[in-house]
């Protein structure tokens, strides 16, 4: 890479960080909360909206039950937070659900959890960024119609920020997260006071009529209506997706890691619950009408409002009503909400690479994902996550309502298996724990995890039933694909490990080939050829031949004459090539040497041009590269590249390659 | 490549052909005529249409002058054929216009001609195939709207046919070309007889009114009208594009090559001229109305016919009228015309790779284009041509009227420079030729070429003036780009040749490095490492070290313990890597060795996994490959790959690679 590109990379990503500074990137609670909890908190920006618009299909009266749906979500949230506080204490290593499931339920359960989480991390980025782009388009009408491009641009920016490293991301993201908490808190408090004093104005959409879907004429009373309520609940459970990010991120916390993580988890649960309920209750109090298809479902004086009606998100409508007369507050809420959504995706950018790296360490993903790149971030994982999220945003046109149907399945697969694993964990430990005090704590933990298991399994079933045909099947297919891929990679690495291991034949492996037979490939007699000959001679092989492939009789004759004229002390062998090939005659000759003296080592010296520009590569080396590739398939052959640095490489030292941190752990 | 892919290639392309069978692929005149002349002949299928529709812009009366425009084209055709008969005698080597221009006007003129011809070959394929697709859509209405995809499919089929080799293409294509001559001949003869006997029916469009463009209300009388007539003439000159293909294809003729080529050229000229004039005259006699924009320009009872009107090509309308009552004859003419257009593209498939190969031999294109592939065809050139033509068809929606605006410029650039070159050629030879008889023949030839020069230069100017803004500028930009590219490649090869040549220092180049310092890269102690160590030891270097990069202290300790336990007689050196890199510490160490002993040769042995499937490559070797790439930039270093064939390579011998004929001529 050129100096310029290197400089640009430094500018964007900062200077590389030494390994021994790894400890410095740990997070105190006040930074860890915004970094890891922004996902769960930010879902306040779309989860209530999805509850309301799903219920809207059953008509206006259905909206009134939204606080009850919200309560159900809150119940699940509190149970799951309580359960995961047990997890972070029992498994502080950051493997999170993957580790819990692997240790207690076996590798297949672990890989299932990992597949589910990887897919859900991608969806977290896609949903949060898409929702953020929609908030931005509400605020800046010029963005309308370009949400997809805008969302993809945001993912790219986030990717660069994360390639700079964890800590700096945390600091940069803490302020907006706290601002968001303050903003939603202000809406809730002011709204509650104005409601109590009877001065709460109606929302902008309160004057509209809302009609449901024709097939749901009984509202939420019938079977279809009940199903709809469950679907609204399932969408609302998007609020839970941040929880497992904390349990996977324990190693990034300051010591005591587990305790700090558990506290952060409890804080997250409390804040999240308060926000969701405030918003749903205030939405009812201000009479917000929120529809899945506003153009048709919302009526103004009996007439559908049509395509030009812009349905602002619930939080925007709420803050406009609550802060009537204080327009700058409404603007602040909208801006901060848009911002927090973008930052929420950062949770996944912290969680995904860590999980990917653990999976790579265990041989389920390519070793490259275990590489710490510049700035100690897991660069490859970050880039993989970004690419997948961009593909998803592009495929779904950045539409939150469509993306959210794929969401949550993975998280609840992971929740359920993790809680099952925790139940097993306590049962196993109880079998050997003699201390009665510890036994009581363990039994208490087991009860909490059992309740968590029952709750998350129930939600998983509800999510699967209500969302399968709406898009969850896509997420399931993706998980199965990731599962199969990871099992395949693992099987491959295991086979290779067995193949390479030194076994009983370790001493035998020290045996040397009896003789070295060197060949120098010659096409013309020029300086690279002379260098290859000199190097081959300097290595003093037992036998040395120059080999050329005879395609054109005149060329061969000319070469032979030059050879003799130069008086080179190496015999020149001409190989026939009736089909005008280079590769096959050489391979055949090498094989014949090996056949005649199977214990000999054949070293093939190939002069190779080293070029300074990629396009020069197209003009040279085509035959040499193909031959090299094929020779490597022949046992007992060493391919020695003798480089000739063309003048265009001047100033390139081989040291300026800015790709760092290429550490193949494993092998 | 797998056996299956190899078998599929054999099935499509046939078995490879030995060099000594090259003579067997020469063409007798009866095959050469259809192979090389089908382009010029087939332009009868669109050139009259383009003359008529261009004139149509000036209204109905303008159509009546079409035979005069046709006569002008015929005049140019006869002049050019006469001129080129001189060329094929003087330059029988197949370099054609490129060779003539290079020898007589210098390399820049030659490269200009070559650029022009390469671009025009691509356009020949694009125009012929697009026109063929339009004929097919006329016959098969189901194809309408899918012309582009159909045309691209045809190019792919032609490409495969040509990769099989020249002769088989010739035989396969001869029959349809002769059928086409017969069909058009039948239309002309039967049409003439029926006209003479007063029984020639009117064409299907004869009853329609034709209105011109508003801006051309004076018809062809004004300046704009005159300009339009010149543009119609320029389009009609598309009929000349086949001529230079024969002069470039002389080496493919049977002996006496030049005489046979000249005869074929004369035949082509005669047949082509007869066809064009017959069609234009019969079009007038049957009252065909042919418009550039038929939906608007054609009126039925004073009302525009609208978008649903299908304007059949002139030949289709003619044969329907001439063979009224014999519908199968009209169908035969349409089918054969469609077929000949597809086959016409084959002319370019014969000419382009030959020219590309000559240019590659002279160092103006990458060496790979000089490679004869399977079946003795110039595979790389064929594939390049096909790719460019497909891009053009795709970009212009397979619309002949738009593509034809780009056409012909190149051919007339080449014609003009070639004729200028021929005039110089005769002048030069006359200066030294003493034989009076030979001098008379030469002077006659020079007169013919001078007339040819005047004629082609005039046409070139007309084409440039009338078509520049209609699209010719694109062709000119493409030619300039190709010119610059070829000069750049040539400059590069020249620089490299000078750099590599053995000069006064030839003896010095024989000097050997004083000592060999071998390094074996070690990451783990497994079988590939053991093999690399054994091979390195067998080569008996003056110094041998095992080198590992210390990233993780535990890993290093484990390796060191294993090393001692195995009792390996090679010292293990650990390189520090504070930034967790592999490449940089190794490069730095190699450089330090070179600095301490500049006359030593450093051989770096790298164990490398050889995998059986491409995706396995993603799972291995990433660090090794990057390191190898960087090491090659360091002078005095040989990189020795010690392959370890993983089990997945079993059955792969390195011999099954079906890419043949990789002969780097030059260097």
UniProtKB/TrEMBL annotation, chains A, B:
Its main location: membrane. The keyword Transmembrane helix applies. GO terms for molecular function: transmembrane transporter activity. GO terms for cellular component: membrane. The keyword Cytoplasm does not apply. It is a multi-pass membrane protein. InterPro entries: AA/rel_permease1, APC_K+_Transporter. The chain crosses the membrane at residues 51-84, 105-129, 149-166, 173-196, 220-243, 264-288, 328-355, 376-396, 402-426, 447-465, 471-489. It is found in: Membrane. Pfam families: AA_permease_2. Keywords: Membrane, Transmembrane, Transmembrane helix. Signal peptide: none annotated. PANTHER family: POTASSIUM TRANSPORTER KIMA. This is Amino acid transporter. It comes from Cellulomonas soli. The lineage of its organism: Bacteria, Bacillati, Actinomycetota, Actinomycetes, Micrococcales.
């Amino acid at each position: 890479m050129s100096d310029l590109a290197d400089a640009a990379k430094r500018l964007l990503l900062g200077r590389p960080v030494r390994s021994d500074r790894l400890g410095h990137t740990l997070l105190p609670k006040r930074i860890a909360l915004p970094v890891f909890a922004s996902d769960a908190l930010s879902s306040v920006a779309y989860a209530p909206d999805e509850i309301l618009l799903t219920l809207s299909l059953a008509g206006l009266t259905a909206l009134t039950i939204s606080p009850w749906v919200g309560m159900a979500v809150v119940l699940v949230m509190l149970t799951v937070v309580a359960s995961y506080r047990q997890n972070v204490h029992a498994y502080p290593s950051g493997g999170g659900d993957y580790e819990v499931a692997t240790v207690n339920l076996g590798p297949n359960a672990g890989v299932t959890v990992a597949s589910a989480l990887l897919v859900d991390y991608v969806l977290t980025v896609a949903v949060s960024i898409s929702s953020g782009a929609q908030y931005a388009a509400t605020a800046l009408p010029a963005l309308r119609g370009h949400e997809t491009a805008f969302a993809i641009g945001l993912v790219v920016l986030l990717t660069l920020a994360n390639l700079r490293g964890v800590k700096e991301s945390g600091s940069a993201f803490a302020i907006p997260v706290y601002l968001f908490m303050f903003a939603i808190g202000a809406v809730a408090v002011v709204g509650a006071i104005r409601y109590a004093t009877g001065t709460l104005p109606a929302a902008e959409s309160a004057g509209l009529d809302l009609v449901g879907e024709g097939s749901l004429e009984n509202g939420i009373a019938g079977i279809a209506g009940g199903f709809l309520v469950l679907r609204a609940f399932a969408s609302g459970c998007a609020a839970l997706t941040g929880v497992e990010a904390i349990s996977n991120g324990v190693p990034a916390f300051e010591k005591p890691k587990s305790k700090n993580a558990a506290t952060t988890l409890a804080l997250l649960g409390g804040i999240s619950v308060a926000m969701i309920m405030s918003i749903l209750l205030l939405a009812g109090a201000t009479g917000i009408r929120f529809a899945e298809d506003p153009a048709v479902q919302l009526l103004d004086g009996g007439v559908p409002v049509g395509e030009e009606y812009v349905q602002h998100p619930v939080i925007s409508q709420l803050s406009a009503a609550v802060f009537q007369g204080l327009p700058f507050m409404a603007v602040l809420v909208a801006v901060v909400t848009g911002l927090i959504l973008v930052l929420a995706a950062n949770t996944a950018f912290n969680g995904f690479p860590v999980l990917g790296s653990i999976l790579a360490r265990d041989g389920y993903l390519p070793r490259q994902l275990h590489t710490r790149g510049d700035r100690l971030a897991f660069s490859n994982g970050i880039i993989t996550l970004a690419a997948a999220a961009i593909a998803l945003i592009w495929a779904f046109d950045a539409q939150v309502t469509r993306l959210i149907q794929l969401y949550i399945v993975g998280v609840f697969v992971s929740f359920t298996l993790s809680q099952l694993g925790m139940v097993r964990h306590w049962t196993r430990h109880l079998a050997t724990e003699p201390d009665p005090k510890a036994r009581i704590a363990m039994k208490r933990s087991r009860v909490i995890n059992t309740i968590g298991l029952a709750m998350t399994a129930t939600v998983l079933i509800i999510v699967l039933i209500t969302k399968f045909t709406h898009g969850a099947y896509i997420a399931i297919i993706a998980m199965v694909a990731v599962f199969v891929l990871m099992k395949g990679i693992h099987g491959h690495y295991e086979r290779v490990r067995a193949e390479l291991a030194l076994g009983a034949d370790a001493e035998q492996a020290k045996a040397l080939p009896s003789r070295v037979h060197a060949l120098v490939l010659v096409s013309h007699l020029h300086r690279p050829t002379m260098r290859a000959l000199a190097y081959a001679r300097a290595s003093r092989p037992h036998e040395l031949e120059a080999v050329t492939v005879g395609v054109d009789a005149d060329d061969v004759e000319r070469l032979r004459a030059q050879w003799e004229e130069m008086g080179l002390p190496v015999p020149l062998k001409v190989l026939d090539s009736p089909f005008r090939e280079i590769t096959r005659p050489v391979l055949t000759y090498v094989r014949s040497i090996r056949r005649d003296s199977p214990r000999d080592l054949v070293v093939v010296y190939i002069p190779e041009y080293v070029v300074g520009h990629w396009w020069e590569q197209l003009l040279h080396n085509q035959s040499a590269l193909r031959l090299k590739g094929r020779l490597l398939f022949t046992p007992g052959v060493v391919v020695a590249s003798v480089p000739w640095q063309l003048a265009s490489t001047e100033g390139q030292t081989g040291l300026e390659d800015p790709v760092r941190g290429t550490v193949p752990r494993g092998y």
